[in-house]
Queue: 2 jobs
Job 1
Amino acid sequence: MQSNAALEYDYSVAKLFTYTTILFGFLGMLIGTLIASQLAFPELNYMLGEYGTFSRLRPIHTNTVIFGFTLSGVFATFYYVGQRVLKVSMAESKFLMTIGKIHFWLYLVGALAATISLLLGYSQSKEYAQYEWPLDIVIVIIWILWGISMFGLIGIRREKTLYISMWYYIATFLGIATLYLFNNMAVPTYFLTDGLGNFMHSVSMYSGTNDALVQWWYGHNAVAFGFTVPIVAMVYYFLPKESGQAIYSYKLSLLSFWGLMFVYLWAGSHHLLYSTVPDWMQTMGSVFSIVLILPSWGSAINMLLTMKGEWNQLTENPLIKFMVLASTFYMLSTLEGPIQAIKSVNAIAHFTDWIPGHVHDGVLGWVVFMIMAGLFHMAPRMFKREIYSKSLLETQFWLQTTAVVLYFTSMWIAGITQGMMWRAVDEYGNLMYSFIDTVAVLHPYYAIRALSGVLYLTGFLMFAYNMIKTMTASRELTQEPQFKSPMA
Amino acid sequence: MFHWLEKNPFFFSVGVFVIISFAGLIEILPNFTEASRPVIGLKPYTVLELAGKEVYKKDACIACHSQLIRPFKSETDRYGQVSLSGEYAYDRPFLWGSKRTGPDLHRVGNYRTTDWHENHMWDPKSVVPQSIMPAYKHMFTNIADIETAYAEAVTVKKVFHTPYGDEFKGTREAWEAHKPTVLAEAKEVVKNMKNKDVKDAVANGEIPEIVALIAYMNRLK
Amino acid sequence: MNALMIKGLAFAAVLMIATLAVVMSLDIDLSDPINIITMLGALVIAGLSAGVSIKYINQMKTDTATGELADENWDGIGEYKNELPSGWAYSFLATMIWALWYWFVGYPVNAFSQIGQYNEEVLAHQEKFEAKYKDADSDTLQQIGESIFLVQCAPCHGETGDGLSGKSQDFSSRESEAQVLDIIENGSDQLHYPMGAMPGGMAFGEDAKIAAKYVADGMKGDAPAAFGVCAGCHGADGKGNDGMSPNIAEYDNEVIKHVLANGKKGVIGMMPSFKGRFTEVQEKALATYIQSIQQQ
Ligand code: HEM
Ligand code: HEM
Ligand SMILES: [Ca+2]
Ligand SMILES: [Ca+2]
Ligand SMILES: [Cu+2]
């Protein structure tokens, strides 16, 4: 083991990505709240002319929260956690500092350009892969830059054994790289036609059922390697670090990791149940989804057991609260997903609001909670000031918890209701409900969801305010806190 | 063994890469050639229809509409015959969607018509009072990009051998020569429409997005 | 059980009860196997997530951290060498074994066909339905017709069959004056009645108008002379000579049948054909229902 002499870590890149996490989080959730309101109150579609309809904005919501907010959070925490668990400072390598800075600025420019392109209607119409080819290329470059940063840091590390969080960051890097490349393969039309038509336009390399297969092999695993793997990396660092507890079990970490890597990829076809892909492949997706419960729960259980005997921390430290609740929402969504992947359940659940319900108990309860807790933990250490307000943090916690519960219960009921109404037949065996009946009945649930959006967004604004105050105005610290983050 | 891996980032990464790769291969490879075979009699999209598909993508109708009729009686009663793999052979990208905020559209051409779409896209509430679908009035003035649609047809012909005729060539002259065909098709659609501005535009040789979109909707059968 | 566990499970129970209440208020048949499985699935999600996570959270209250620490330490984070939680380990093993068994042996992966299952479902229903309602009375037919109408036709004709302010056919009366005039002028050749096409120019000017008005008003009172030509084909009563040409006095089964089979294009717009979408009984039911609208 190395000496424990304090290293001066350089957080400049981590700070930059922290700012964009806050910015894109706000924008993405603002749009989320807007589109949720549009489904309840369609008049809201007409505020921005052709650019303000639900359909134009929905991909902007998903891309802003995924490639804006979540990815920023992943990069911010990586540039913080990476240095610390590898015991090497960015400041030790000019080269890596430069790469890190380019990584950030290219990311920022790319993200803005990508958002504008979607607003203008440039879209490949493949979920979570909408950006057209020039932006795909920018994204690939950004990804390579991150890879250089990561493996560069690993190359000059002092701590020889990779910490669990690093396993997950590496997997994030490799997973997304492979998946993104294959799914976005497209032929630009401009070059094969002597410059006819729009430069941005391309056609997918795959067609029909094949395209669907590649898309959901990607789509499912974009969820895996975007919303799960890097967030697990965060919880494995921030929870023990904030609480001062040692990880409950190395064996459980190990088996969960390799189990997750192995099983996740096999489950993609649960997005294509009852479609035109072969039956055996659908069954494969269903079956492996069930298996997937265990490696997913493994990490969550490992975290909850890490906190055993520490009830007082759970009640006293709001950051611990956030992380424990995040772990339980992770358990909820990784049980809900597999159940929805059972063919008979999917016959009802697919295409309904139950799926966005499942999505958001994952993203709101797990991804956002975990990223916010991580950034709150980092702030006193990066900015050398204590967290501005504990009471604000407590209020935010309850507000957002209420919001998530409202979101997922309303969409749960809405989805099951709609799914069953689509199938319902009257005593003569004819369809009982016209399509519009099944839309009209959802109004109250859409309204509740819109309300939950407002609450959640308000909570996020509290987070942003608390962070900004922490950066600028709260009491300065002379010494880095060992574990529990100091807060006023 | 695992401890060793954790000290060797290179082999660790290789291990992760291998373990995540082969599931993909099993999922994707076996079916690849078979699934791309078109059903008998399937015609590639005309240029106007392709332009309409572009409008569908641009305005992200996929956010609310699926194009996949699953094999349940409740779905075939509502939307028509079950969807078959070969029907999608020329769909790049596939547009099955994953959310039905609105109804499935895979066979909407069978049971909705030009004038209905015209009313509906202008103001959905005027035909379905409880509708929550947005109105797309801008499609009546925005001009569709048929040149790009033509470029797409030529590209898929060159690269994927989609059976377009020999006249589809990647030159400006070939495009100019094909334009009247597209316009003629648009005129057929406009015959059943009432909007004066749209009619005038087509008479002047320009094709508003709505015309292309309706051509695409009518094609979905 | 402790308080937290009770609260957690109570929440799950409330969610399930609320879901059931909403679904049942919509007359949904909960004995449908798919619906049962879905409800059970929902129950498992709510119950198991709450139960298991709270079980572990409760250990925060009662247990203390124990075990042998590993040598390594990252940024102050240690790691115990604890064994796997046995419940988790056995479940993982069990699901792996089950998965392989299910995929390769237990479930007939090679024998199952979702299309086959679908065909059986449709066939079973069709036989039962046709047999049961072949000779249904008109009240039953009207009800069947209404339910089909609301799903398939209402998007154009409106829920009350009023044609949505002129956007399509209004069933509260037969053709409007403008529609009849159009046909008198231009003829019509799309419905495929035994008599074939109706030629255009059957009447002109005032005559055409008078005939059209008479037909549109429901053919009440004495027929004007101008209707004489029409009667030749449609009959003096306008009822179409036993199905040789359309009944223009009122909706009858034949009109509906021909329109469903061929679609119709007229001054209002175009109606698509529904050929092959309905069974005999369903068509008859639709006709009965549409007639009932006109009579209201
Ligand atoms: C204020 C909070 C949020 C609100 C009100 C909200 C609302 C919505 C709405 C209304 C939709 C469309 C659902 C539909 O089409 O029926 C949606 C989709 C989605 N949102 Fe959010 N959202 C929020 C935050 C987030 C966050 C933070 C993330 C990710 C980190 C996220 C990820 C997604 C994804 C992935 C989808 C697509 C789901 C699918 O296609 O099934 N959302 N959101
Ligand atoms: C064991 C783990 C999981 C499994 C087996 C699983 C399974 C599923 C299933 C079956 C669907 C619905 C597909 C459909 O019918 O349309 C789905 C959708 C989705 N899930 Fe999960 N899920 C899991 C965990 C998660 C987690 C943790 C998150 C996020 C934090 C997540 C995010 C999503 C998203 C974004 C979608 C929507 C995809 C779309 O656009 O259609 N899932 N998942
Ligand atoms: Ca793309
Ligand atoms: Ca989706
Ligand atoms: Cu998935």
Job 2
Amino acid sequence: MPESTAETHVDINSESDIVKVRKTVRDLAAAQGFGPTDVTRIVTAASELARNVFRFAGTGFLQMKQYEEGPRRCLELLFEDQGPGIADIEQAMEPGFTSGGGLGLGLPGAKRLMDELELDSVPGRGTRVTVRKWMNSSQKKGLAA
Amino acid sequence: MSADSISVNRIREVLLVTVPPEPDDETITMLQEKVLAAMERHNARGLVLDISTVDTLDSFFARTIIETGQMVKLMGGRTVIAGMRTGVAITATQLGLVFGHLLTALDVDRALDLLGES
């Protein structure tokens, strides 16, 4: 179980809220101790996911959680909306697939930039995307590579 | 960040645009229109996009830059992306962005060199 949790909530109702999401995520990730490159990765992933919420659902929110599990620190971002949902999740995770006229990099890109991504969607009901970044995990990956 | 904050400067036959640090989608879209109008007005032969203050280059922003480069090319100009930060370069690559035919330079000076101005 997480030892300590801090939560932050950001509503996504307009295009300018995407900028607000980026700023909030940047400040919290940096304060939590992530290095500049990881902060950029996390903020970029958040920007993709916030834009998906706004573009496909119109409104939704971001719930950020910061917690520690033993020696590891985690930043968790949950994006939730009650939009049209995703009919084919496998297809949505394919790089280059788009239903919104974009590059089709949002979901697969966010997955590559973060350590974990969970996608939960019911067509007609909404979508919930959870991404996590663990501190030091990139260093561990670097050693393993 | 409003669209008014984008400045388009002309150095001889090259346009220099400094992209604001945290542009919203509307600003990015305005930037494209502003650049293309300036290309025509100044009969420019090149464009330098200075992104050295940009911390977040997501797929929307990248797509607009790539498209702008293609449009500038159709108008007979070359586009150089200047000053991409380390973290942005790493993130853009991992995100899967492909910048195609756009030229890149470490900073504005080298970008101008690349376009034959110094």
